[in-house]
Predict the 3D structure of the following.
Amino acid sequence: MAEVLDAIYEDDKERKLILREYRKLLRTIPDSATEQDWENVRKAFELAVRAHAAQRRKDGDPYILHPIEVARICAEEVGLGPTAVVAALLHDVVEDTNVTLEEIEQTFGERIALLVNGLTKLDRSVNAESPRAENFRKVLYWMVQDVRVGLIKIADRLHNMRTLSAMPRHKQLKIASETNFLYVPLAHRLGLYNIKTELEDLCLKVLNREAYQEIAEKLQATKEERAQFISRFIEPIKQKLDQQGMKYRILGRPKSISSILNKIRTKGVPFGQIYDLFAVRIILDVPPEQEKTACWVAYSLVTDVYAPLPERLKDWISTPKSNGYESLHTTVIGPDGKYVEVQIRTERMDEIAEKGYAAHWKYKGVRTQASSTFDRWLDEVRELLENKEADAREFVQYFKSNLFTQEVWVTTPKGDMIVLPKGATALDFAYHIHTEIGDHCQAVKVNQRLVPLGYKLQQGDQVEVITDAKQKPKKDWLKLVVTGKARSRIRQALKKEQRQVGELGKEALIRKLNNLKVQPVDQAIEMLVRYYEYPSHVDLYYAIATEQLTISALLAPFELKDHKLIPKPQPQSENGEEAGHAVADATPTTPVRPRPKATILIDGEPGEHYNYTFANCCNPVQGDEIFAFISRTGGLKIHRVSCPNATHLMANYDYRIRRAEWVTKQDAEFVAELRITGVDDGPGVIERLAHELSSKLRVNIRAFSILGGDDAYFEGTIKLIVANVNQLNLAIRTLKNLDNVDTVTRVN
Ligand code: MN
C-alpha cells in the first residue's frame, strides 16, 4: 500500500502521516471482518489516494486525510463496520474526481455504490432553488434505504466541523449554520448523543464566539472546585452500591457548553446560579433480564442518601425516547443544598445512548423498545419523502418541526400510542392521524371531555377526534397548530379554496381588461400583481373576488396608452398625498406607496413655497442631516449630507445648494432601505425578521427580498416605513442584535 503513496507524494513526512492515519484506521476494524472486507478496505484506500491525488484541504494537508479520518470516526465513534468504512473512504470520490459510480459498483458491489451515491452531493449543474435543502433531502432519501448513509454523512460533517478553523470566516458561518440547522437534529434523531453534543458546541464556537468563550473560561475556572464537590457527592453512593455488591461505573461529567448557554437563556439565570453544570452517571453492568430491576435498586440507594425532587424524575426506561434513549434521571439535593442530576442506566443503554443507531444493532438479540422506535421514525421519514408535492424547503421545515427533543405521548381511543412534539394541540393530533380527519375536525374529546381545538396535549391524554363532513379548514386554524404537517395541510387547503374563489375575480378582471382592449392581458395582470405587491396572482384574484378591492380602484392609478396600462404621472408633493389617499380609501388592504408628510424649511422659509421632492439616491428620513439641490428643471431635490452624490454636488455646484431643515411632524412617513447580511438558519428567517420589526417595533415593512439564498449566508434588502431617523436607528440596532444577523446597513 505504500507504493501507491510513493508515486503521488514526494514529501516523506506526508507519506508517513498518511500511512500512520491509515494504520490507525485499520486498527479499528473488528476481528470479525472477512478476507473480502480487508481486501475492500485496501482497494478503497488505494482508489481514494489516487482519485484525490491532486487535492489539498484548506489547511494544506493532503485531501486523503479527510476520508481516512471520516472512516475512522465511523468505525470508532459511531461503531460502524467494514462496509461503512469502505464507503466512508470513497465518500468524496464521485463528487470531487473523475471516478464514476459505475466503477465503484463494479469494484465494490451494489451496496457500497448505494452508500456512496447517497453521500454524493447533487450535481452542481442541477438548478435547484435551495441546493442545501435538496441535498439534505437526498441524504435522507438514501438513508431510509440504508441508515448508514445518514451516519457516514454525520461523521463527514463532524470532521469538517473539527477542522473548520482553516476556512475563511464567511465559510465557517455557512457551514456551522447549516450544521446547526440540519445535522445536529439528525444526529440527535439517530441517537448519536456524543457527536450531537460535540457538533452543537463546535457550531456555537463559530456562530456565537463571545458566549462560547465566556462559558468555556468560567468552566475552566471552576473546574477544581467542581471536581472536589463531585467526589464528595459520589463517595456515600459508592459505599451503598458496594454494600449491595453491584458492578458499576460512576462518573461526574460536565454538561456541554451549548446546553449551559441554553439554560442561561431559557431560565434567564446567570452562570453562577446554574446548579447542574454537570451530571453524575451510574452505569450498571448487569445481564439483560436484570436491567430494569437493577436500575430501580440503584435509584432507591441514591435516594436513600440524598433527597430526590420527585417532579424531576424521568423514567426513560419504561418509555424510551423516540431516538432510542433509555435511562433513569433524577435530581437530588446534594451537599450544601446543591441540586445534582443523577443518571442511572446499564452498559447497554449507555452504549446506545452514546453511539445510537449503530450500537443498537449490536444488541439486536435483546428485545428493546428502542429498536421499534427507531424503525417507526424511519417509517415516518419514508412517508414524508413520498409526499412529492412538498418542495425541498417545505420538506426540511416539516422534518425539523418533527425533531423536537421534547415530546408528548398520547393515545387513541383504541390505545395506540402517538408521539407528537411537545406543545402539539388537539388539532395537530387530528392532522397526525390523517389529513382528512384534520380537515374535517369538528371537535376533540380528551379523556372523554370536549376541549378546544387549540388544547395543548398532556402526557398520557387519550384523544378522540369527532369529524363532520361539512367542516373545512379555516385561516384561524394556523394559529392552533404547531406541527409542520398540520400547518402545511391547512395551508394547502386554504390555497385550494382561495384558488377556487379567486376564479371569479380572475374572470372579472380579464373581462374588464378585454373591454378596455388591453393587450396582452397576461402582461398587464403580471404588472398589477407587482405594482400592488401581492405575493401571487391568486392573492390578487382573491382580493377582487372577495371585494377587498374593486376593479375600478385597482385600475385608478393607470391610464391606457397603446393598449397598455401605464401608471399616471405622479403629481408632486402635496397633490400626490391626496392622490395616494384616494386609492387608499377605496382599497383599504392594498399597499399604497406612502408619501412623506413632513415639511421642511428651505433657507429658513417654509418649504411649501418650493417644489421639492426627496432624492431617490439616498432616501432622506426625518432627522437626517439634509440639504436641497436645485435641479435642472428648477425643482428642489432633498439629499442627505451623507449621500454618495453629496460631495460631488457640493464641490461642483456650490451655487445650486440650499440649506434645508426638518419641521418635525409626528405622523411623517419615510421609506428607508436597509441591506442585511446574515446566516440563514432556515426557511423561517424572513418571518422572524419581519416579526421582530412589525410586532415589536411596530415598523411597517414595504418590501423584503432575500438575494443569494442558495447558501446558509444570505443577503437581503428591506424597505421600511419609518417616522424618523431615531426609529430607523432603533430598527437597525434591533436587527443587528438578532442572532442570525451579521450586518445591517442603510442603503445609499
Ligand atoms: Mn467529505
